[in-house]
Amino acid sequence: MIGKSATSRKILLLAPLLLFLGLAYVVPFLGVVRWSFTLPEPGVGQYRSLFTDPLVQSVFIRTLRICLVVTAASLVMAYAIAYVWVRGSSVQRMLAEFCILVPFWISVLTRAFGWLAMLSNRGLINTWLQSAGIIGEPLALARNELGVIIGMTHFLIPFAVFPIASAMRSIDERVLLAARGMGASRTRIFWTVFVPLTYGGLIGAALIVFVFALGFFVTPAILGGGRSVMVAELVYLRIFQSPDWGLGAAISVVLVLFIGILLALMRRFIKPAHLVG
């Protein structure tokens, strides 16, 4: 009886949040689903276009390629930062915390324009390299996939650090001491004991970064310069700059379903409490 009463109180406390989420997200999404089946005419033609339209297919392939590269780059750099944060000296930990937290204080728009100032043909990097006589012509660092990958990786690294650091903190030091006592070198302990014990954090970080990367809009639009359109930008173009609302809605539905599957996998490998380190 007491258990039922406690459950009822929890449901009542959650009711406003559930009502808000339903009105703000579920109802509009159902409207998008309806558009995908009714515009410009009833049927599944828009979903069929996802498999037959070369433009849509190229954007999906480019999005997956960029997301995979960004995820891999973010994991490598986040692992190094998390290692210093968890196992470094007090000064190293403080510097790592600074590097992790400061990016959260800067908006994604500011960071994208900051990278554009660094990577453009007349940016700081090309200007310095040309002034030093290292290159004759500016390197193509922006307005392409490379610029998009650099900007997205910089933004997403902090999100990968927390689950990896959480996994590192959960390692039993006695396991590492036992390996050391058996005569294993530091390098062998790291690759055969330490890294395998953090696989859960790595998988969780990979899913978080990949899911976030799928929905990126601002960074690809600025650093890609319209030459590296990703799925989110394609939805914007279909909805707001062309009359093809049905196809834009179908792309949105597929993207949401795909992200839902990834989120379900994320819950399988990582607990929500571990996301904050």
UniProtKB/TrEMBL annotation:
GO terms for biological process: transmembrane transport. Keywords: Cell membrane, Membrane, Transmembrane, Transmembrane helix, Transport. Residues 60-266 form the ABC transmembrane type-1 domain. It comes from the Bacteria. InterPro entries: MetI-like, MetI-like_sf. SUPFAM superfamilies: MetI-like (SSF161098). The chain crosses the membrane at residues 63-86, 98-118, 146-168, 189-218, 245-265. Belongs to the binding-protein-dependent transport system permease family. CysTW subfamily. This is Polyamine ABC transporter permease. It comes from Phyllobacterium zundukense.
